[in-house]
Amino acid sequence: MSIPARALDPSIAEAQAALADRTPVVMLLGRAGTGKSHFIRSLVESDREFPQALLAPTGLAAMNIGGQTVHSFFGFPPRPLIGANEKPNWFFTRTARAIRRLIIDEVSMLRADVLDAMNTHLQVARKSSRPFGGVQMLLVGDFYQLPPVVRGEESQLLEDAGYNSPYAFSAHVLRDAPVAAIELTE
Predict the structure, then answer these.
(1) In whole angstroms, what separates CA 167 from the centre of its chain?
(2) What pLDDT score was predicted for residue 186?
(3) In Å, how far are 72, 140, 155 from 55, measured between CA atoms?
(4) Helix axis angle, 36-46 to 11-20, nearest 10°
(5) Alpha-helical segments (H) within the chain
(6) Strands 52-56 and 101-104, how do they pair?
(7) How far is residue 128's CA from residue 133's CA, in Å, rounded to a whole number?
(8) Among 7, 83, 122, 164, which residue's Cβ finds the most Cβ atoms within 10 Å?
(9) Closest C-alpha among 59, 50, 146, 62 to residue 104
(10) 65 pLDDT higher than 80
């Protein structure tokens, strides 16, 4: 995989190396204008045959990257997913077994319980106890931009479930998963 060096940011090479080394979770962070979307487009265009999916927490964010929403891809209901025990459907299971990487854009808007539910669904579908069932995760965004939506008593539900915050980086799965956090600054 080779991504053109449009930006001079040395972190691009670091992100490429983490993906090539199959680091289970790669967080690519950076403020607006640092090349996150360019990195995603270049990654996808560099190998269109690589089995990966482009996801985002909202419909608009998903449209911007040519992907689909997390809830649509996983078949999640529109409610808190704390302690969710729905089994993945057949279509998701078939798809999950075929992919090697999930790219989640605008990860700042993804709640911690949703990331944990993604982990559980992938583990069940792929019959693997590894983080995310062995699927490499590329989490892209800026935690200083849009926060996850937390309505009413959901904040208390998250706190009672042991989440330090509603942000994806508070997900239980990330406590033990190897994570490479890379910040684009230029």
Answers:
(1) 12
(2) 77
(3) 9, 10, 24
(4) 40
(5) 11-20, 36-46, 59-65, 70-74, 90-98, 112-126, 154-160
(6) parallel
(7) 5
(8) 122
(9) 62
(10) yes
Contact 142, 31 (CB under 8 A): yes
Give the three-state DSSP class for 47: coil
Q: 111 Cβ partners below 8 Å, 6+ apart?
A: 80, 148, 149, 150, 158, 166, 167, 168
Record the tokens describing residue 170, joined without a space.
Answer: 């508070």
Residue 7 has pLDDT above 50, yes or no: no
The per-residue pLDDT for 84 is 66
pLDDT category, 151, cuts 50, 70, 90? confident
Q: Which residues pair with 182 in a beta bridge?
A: 28
Q: Residue 11, CB half-sphere, CA atoms under 13 Å: how many? A: 17
Tracing tokens 């040395």 back to the chain, one arrives at 10
